[in-house]
Amino acid sequence: MLFVGDDWAEDHHDVEVLDDSGRRLAKARLPEGMAGMSRLHELLAEHLGEDSISAETGMLAEGEVIVGIETDRGPWVAALIAAGYRVFAINPMSAARYRERHSTSGAKSDPGDAHVLAEIVRLDRAHHRPIAGDSDAVEGLKLVARSHQSLIWERTRHLQRLRQALREFFPAALDALAVGGLELADPDALELLERAGDPDRAVRLSRSKIAAILKRARRREVEAKTEAIQAALRAPALRQAAAIEAAYATIAASQVRLIVGLNAQVPALEEVVAQGFGQHPDAEIYLSQPGLGTVLGARVLAEFGDDPQRYRDHKARRNYAGTSPITRASGRKTVVLARYARNRRLGDATHQWAFCSLSASPGARAYYDQLRARGTSHHAALRQLGNRLVGILHGCLKTRTPYDETTAWAHRQASAA
């Protein structure tokens, strides 16, 4: 067996090859791309025995080459997996702690990091997770689902920046939106801010233009809302200096244009997510879970993946989701804490899933109410409910059966009785 440490950079890879005993067989700096990958194959072939190649398939025998690298994506990693190497994606924090464990000087270099990664997969690979064998379909779904979620997060950030800018120089605009029953992210609210982006332009905005904006958005009680919005925009207010107002107006206008663009792209990408999710064979099982719709179900499926061998049991899936707690015990003191080192995207999706399940599943609602009655906080109760839902999902995927309310919560109902 050969153990390879691969410390990657944007344009090159530092690699080190060790044998079973930890003896260094080779080290090199390889360029990114086809040339570097070909050189790596040649380097490993020099040290592989003839019995490493299967006579039946002509392929490298499983487990003959084990690679440690600090990423789980990209064409380089895909090429390593395609070549038959067993690849471990090592968390950079784990690699840093391992380096400190063997060296207290604080020295660090790319070749040194490659050596650390090779030693990790040689000695401690049992404590790390190999890259999952997910299908290409779910990998593609993960890309678009993450991009869709990132756009939503970006829109929220830009809305917060726009709100803050308006508070600083034009709070009357926020008051006008409030009295008109408009949310800052609404298309008509953004159009109104484009036409009344500063106090001077807002005073000149006519009632007919405000009404036209509301009518295009199919708002009710247009006349009353138009009058209230115009009054709020023209109300006396404290002002900033002209130069400062102009700067703020430019900032607000740029934020409005960004949000308008994001509002157009989020639904378009959501359609792609829904299409990819609907074509996956596990979609029916995910959609049967209470609280999971198309978008949220796609996120959960994408982050969990579809490799049937990835999770040994329901506990392993819960640990990956970050819903299971961690215990810190020292002497007579034992503390149970939430698991914050986790897949942030999956954790966010699971938290939303638990919240949505409260109105879709009587069993989930009863379990949540029991936790709250014991004094558990809202978010802690949702984490525990999410932990339970992840376990139920694991059982459904394992048995290839859809969710059943009675089966999922029967034991808790019996205990309560």
UniProtKB/TrEMBL annotation:
| InterPro entries associated with the record | Transp_IS110-like_N, Transpos_IS110, Transposase_20
What is the top-level taxon of the source organism?
A: Bacteria
Query: Could you tell me which residue ranges the Transposase IS110-like N-terminal domain spans?
Result: 4-171
Residues in Transposase IS116/IS110/IS902 C-terminal domain copies? 287-368
**Protein name listed in UniProt:** IS110 family transposase
